[in-house]
Amino acid sequence: MSDYISESLKSGIIRPSTSPLGAGFFFVSKKDGSLRPCIDYCGLNQITIKNKYPLPLLSSTFKPVNDASIFTKLDMRNAYHLVRIREGDEWKTAFKTPLGHFEYLVMLFGLTNAPAVFQSLVNSVLGDYINKFVTVYLDDILIFSKNLTDHRQHVRAVLQRLLQNRLYVKAEKCEFHLPSVKFLGFVLENGKLRTDPDKIAAVLSWPTPTTRKQLQRFLGFGNFYRRFIRDYSRIAVPLTQLTSIKRQFLWTKEADQMFLTLKERFAHAPILTHPDPSVPFTLEVDASDTGVGAVLSQVSSSDQCLHPCAFYSCRLSPAEQNYDVGDRELLAVKLALEEWRHWLEGAEHPITIWTDHKNLSYLKQAKRLNPRQSRWSLFFSRFNFTNSYRPGSKNVKPDALSRQYASDREVEPSTILPASCIVGSIAWDITNKVLEAQQQEPDPGTGPPNKVFVPTSTRGALIHWAHTAKFSIHPGLGRTISLIRRTFWWPSMYRDVKEYISACQVSARHKSSNQRPQGLLQPLPVPHRPWSHIALDFVTGLPLSKGFTVSLTIVDRFSKACHLVPLKSLPSSTETANLLVKHLFRLHGLPSEILSDRGPQFISRVWSDFANHLGAKVSLNSGFHPQTNGQVEHMNQELEAMLRCICSSNPAGWSAQLPWVEYGHNSHTSSSTDQSPFEVSLGYQPPLFPSDSASSTSVPQFLRRARRTWTQTCAALQRTAERNRRIADRHRRPAPTYTSGQLIWLSSRDIKVRGSCRKFSPRFLGPFPVAEVLGPVSVRLELPPSLRVHPVFHVSLLKPVVSSPPDAPPPPVRLADGSIGYRVRRILDVRSRGRGRQFLVDWEGYGPEHRQWIPSSWIEDASLIEDFEASCASSSSAS
Q1: Where do the Reverse transcriptase domain residues begin and end (predicted)?
Q2: Cα separations (Å) of 98 from 5, 25, 147, 451?
Q3: What is the DSSP letter of 84?
Q4: Closest by Cα among 76, 77, 75, 74 to 177
Q5: Is 500 within 8 Å of 467 (Cβ atoms)?
Q6: Whole-angstrom distance between the N-terminal and C-terminal Cα of the chain?
């Protein structure tokens, strides 16, 4: 790539670009091992206004050649690169590479208007020669003359004109002074025009059928053209008689004569029609295991029926026979377009290509191509065509041509393992179900070879088997599809499997999510003055220091100032209120909002009454989502880091260092405000050294400076909040829209599930209904009483139940006396209570969130207790 870019820059083919466009650029390998650059201009071509400059009509092209007897054919070298892109339009050809962004200064293959523009160029250069002794079709130039003397002068004049205009030809592809020449699918000789034998060679060289199946292919091909052949039924009688399975297949002289007659009729008028560029072309292609076939057709103006213009078939090489079915079908399209390029490239109307491979209809929209397809894509970009799908049963004409080289002999399969190595076979009931269902819905025959078609009625059972079997154990989407594709297929496999796995409750309950967390960042409102909005939290687990083990952290969300208060233990709600009065309110006044986590001090009635009397709003973070109170959490981390730095050698002295930690934090410049907390909250920065600067001259000046500081701080906080939101949202995804009553799963990450090993406990609980949507990222759930957690959660801990509402838990059993009873599914644990025992049980039809301790008298099935005690005994003996 580096060499290509450097050479193209030096030669003036490309230049650096600042275009807003950028087509994909890549290299593909040629057959000789060299690389060819490819650029995907599909998007540009779709919005380009088509150039209607006409290509020459074949009827007018050959009219001046009637009296010619000697010909020369020239082929242009790097033809399209000889045309400059119009100045100001170069940016449209921009392409992106790892080495930079570039744009072309010259025309190149792949641009939709390139053929018309180049035809216009050559016509302008050779205009006074055309129809006198020159005819031109794109980059093919034909020079014709009546005698050798004139011809030499004509050739010299054309070459001189090309040289004057800096147009060059490929010597190795030119043919000089010939009495006969092939041009545009015809043969010119002695002033006469005749059909190129290659057009009908695919039919005339059809081998004599040796089996009934080969004969059926030939007659199936002929049925499409029988209406153009007089007495077709009479001619074909000896052949159709041989297709009967009631008589021996014996090829007679009469059958051979009729076979040759039909081939001759197929290859001549009134079946064949001369191609007319003003009429849309239809190209039918097919590929078999051994060959490819194609038919080029147009609607005839005489009878408005589709007549063939030419036939094509060829045998695949051993390497090509190893292509997968998609690449073989694509190869058939490529070979057909190459064969009839002189008619199809630059065609006035889009070419309709019919294949029996449905995936080819999405060729132009493919996001990823294999190396072989990438190599061909540049060639395809020269043609204006649309791919259309036709079932194989209706694609008979090219199918018959492609199977000329197929053998009907059965290939004996080679032995991979001798019978002595096989000790048993494995059979699955699902296979029998699929085969039985095929009797009502047979295989359409459009799928990949050696795969079993799955009818609609058994697809759900098959997906369930592949996803839940013991050898499978609930794999993801890719692995489930891979497992099914080993044997089975049906058209909507990907969609059906995806819907099933999305609705699988076992996978939803027990598998962790690998996706980005849900819920975009919702920054808290920016305060407008210091200490109006505060945040609280406790740091616990500190070593004993003069009787203190806990630190209270108070943070001003506006100035980022903090107060750190050492405590002997976690305080109660009343003690916390007194601490705020002593260390905060007397210094900074009453706040408007107090933000905290859901600790017991902050969810009590005492705390809410205290805040109400102050006129302050109590804000609590959602369950198991400390990021809501992120500022105080960050302050706690900074506190611990500073204490580690100064107390690592004497951990018991941390309480004495706490004032210095507070001073250090408040004097440092905050990244959010670009000022220190002292400057924002007090209006000045306490000096570390004696200062000679004069103090403020007046109180009004100090107040103006303080207000200006607050305005700047508010703007800085808003910018910081927006920046943090953008950064955080790169690693998050929007949450789905939840509605009241919707069933959702709740993450069990921070919830202890009783009686379960943490490693094997479900990753999600539920499903639970939504009680209320509190905001863009907060939801209140209806939880069972056994889950003693606050019911408000951040959306990152939730995921929706994809399927329709799942089946409700089974209703309780109604006993003979009319009372209600629930069935115990299994016993998980036991404990002593009073004079009896209680068992932790799972109920039949209910999830782990409904586990419950019940007395032993409630368990009517004594075998459950016996099994539980036996398992406990075996565990004790093993340990």
Answers
A1: 9-188
A2: 11, 9, 57, 42
A3: B
A4: 74
A5: yes
A6: 66
Q: What are the structural domain ranges in the chain?
A: 2-194, 198-402, 440-503, 533-685+709-721, 813-878
Distance CA 67, CA 795 (A): 85
374 touches 416 (CB < 8 A)? no
The DSSP letter of residue 132 is T
Q: Are strands 852-855 and 836-843 parallel, antiparallel or unpaired?
A: antiparallel
Query: SS3 for 268?
Result: coil
Please state whether the predicted TM-score (pTM) of the whole model is above 0.70.
Answer: no
Architecture of domain 813-878: Beta Barrel (2.40)
| Residue 161 confidence (pLDDT) above 80 | yes
CA distance 501 to 477: 7
At the top level of CATH, the class of 198-402 is alpha beta
Tens-digit pLDDT profile for residues 694-714: 555 566 766 666 666 667 666
Q: Any idea what DSSP says for residue 675?
A: S
For residue 856, count CB atoms less than 10 angstroms from its CB and return exposed for 0-12, middle for 13-18, buried for 19 or more. Answer: middle
Burial-class residue 183 by CB neighbours within 10 Å (0-12, 13-18, 19+).
buried
Instruction: In whole angstroms, give the CA distance from residue 819 to residue 814.
Output: 6
Domain spanning 440-503, CATH class: mainly alpha
pLDDT digits (tens, 9 = 90+) for 752-766: 766 566 666 677 777
Q: How far is CA 568 from CA 543, 545, 576, 598, in A?
A: 11, 9, 13, 21
Its CATH class, for the domain covering 2-194, is: alpha beta
According to DSSP, the β-strands at 452-453 and 488-489 are parallel
- Cα–Cα dist 159/143, whole Å: 11
pLDDT at position 217:
74
Q: What is the CATH number of domain 533-685+709-721?
A: 3.30.420.10
Looking at the DSSP bridge assignments, the partners of residue 836 are 833
Please give the Cα distance from 732 to 747 (Å, whole number).
17
Half-sphere exposure of 90 (CA within 13 A, CB side): 17
Give bridge partners of residue 827 from the DSSP assignment.
841
How far from chain centre, in Å, is Cα 444?
A: 28
Looking up tokens 């080819």 gives 360
Give the whole-angstrom CA distance, residue 174 versus residue 519: 67
Q: Do domains 198-402 and 533-685+709-721 have the same CATH topology?
A: yes
